[in-house]
Amino acid sequence: MEATPHVRVNRSGGVARVLMERPDRHNAMDERMARGLADRLKELAADDTVRCLVLRGVGGVFNTGADLSTFEGDGSDAERLDAIATPLHEAVSTLVHAPKPVVTGVNGVVAGGGLGLALAGDVVLAAEDARFEYAYPKIGLSGDGGATWLLPRLVGRRTAQELVFLDRAIDADKAVQMGLATETVPVDDFDERLETLTSTLGSGPTKAYAVAKDLLGLASTNALDEHLDLEKERITGLAHTEDYAAGLQGFLEKEPPNFEGT
Fold first, then answer.
1. Number of domains in the chain
2. b or e along 243-254 (b: 16 or more beta carbons within 10 Å of the residue's beta carbon)?
3. Does 233 reside within a domain?
4. Has residue 259 been placed in a domain?
5. Are residues 130 and 175 in the same domain?
6. In terms of pTM, does the model score above 0.85?
7. Residue 1 reports pLDDT greater than 60
8. Does 193 lie in the same domain as 229?
9. What is the per-residue pLDDT across 64-107, written as a single tens digit (0 to 9) for each?
10. CA 39: distance to chain centroid?
């Protein structure tokens, strides 16, 4: 895996951790960072040895969207926006569709394009100092990074409209209450909790997680009977996996199963 400016990958066991590293710019994305993020996430999502994918920022910040310091504030910025939005959207799509659990660890500020990355996690762990902000109206823009797709699905359309139009910053506890985040932890416990959570998911029944994730994604568009048929098809297919055999054996013997992700 090639080195990528401002994007670092750490791997241990079945967990791959992708760190966004541009602390001098609050982890804001330029074109190279966005492209590197998209490419690394795509590689890891396709790697069967990776059983849990983690995305987080460094320097006490998650991601603050596009780096606007080189923008001009006129029509010439359309090309700059496209150059960042294109790989950003690839990254968000990869996180949403990855056939394995995705955990986003939100510490500090997440805003703009970073919001879509954060919300794309299957599990969103928020440090107590986390702050979620839509932010686009502040610069006269509409939104990207999947935020307008994810928000109404997570919190409902009316609350999504509130977040977009009123653009209030949401703290970690409120984010959990609204459904933007899964849980909040004290800042000093953030790294340990993130490690524990991802290690647990990384040693779980990966194929079952992947099927369940896909079913949840299809639920909002499938008719009930269609979805019931699909559930039956998928669950009977999983009966052929080694993790199912291990899980049933563990259940019958009252012992923790040893899942291998196969």
1. 2
2. bbebbeeeeeee
3. yes
4. no
5. yes
6. yes
7. no
8. no
9. 999 999 899 999 989 999 999 999 999 999 999 999 999 999 99
10. 15
CB-count burial class (<10 Å; 0-12, 13-18, 19+) for 255: exposed
pLDDT at 2 over 80: no
User: Is residue 56 located within the same domain as residue 150?
Assistant: yes
CB < 8 Å & 24+ apart, contacts of 39-42:
39/4, 39/87, 40/1, 40/4, 40/7, 40/9, 41/91, 41/94, 41/95, 41/98, 42/90, 42/94
Residue written as token pair 């590197």: 36
Q: For residue 116, which of 75, 162, 66, 187 has the smallest C-alpha distance?
A: 66
Beta pairing class for 102-106 and 109-111: unpaired
Local confidence band at 5 (pLDDT 50, 70, 90 cut-offs): confident
* Residues 13 and 111 grouped into a single domain: yes
Q: Does residue 13 come out as left (phi exceeding 0), alpha (psi in the -120 to 50 range) or beta? A: left
What is the chain's mean pLDDT, rounded? 95
What pLDDT was estimated at residue 4?
79
DSSP, collapsed to helix, strand or coil, labels residue 203 as coil
Nearest to 115 by CA among 87, 139, 131, 134: 134
Give pLDDT tens digits for 6-43.
999 999 989 999 999 999 999 999 999 999 999 999 99
Q: Are residues 67 and 34 in the same domain?
A: yes
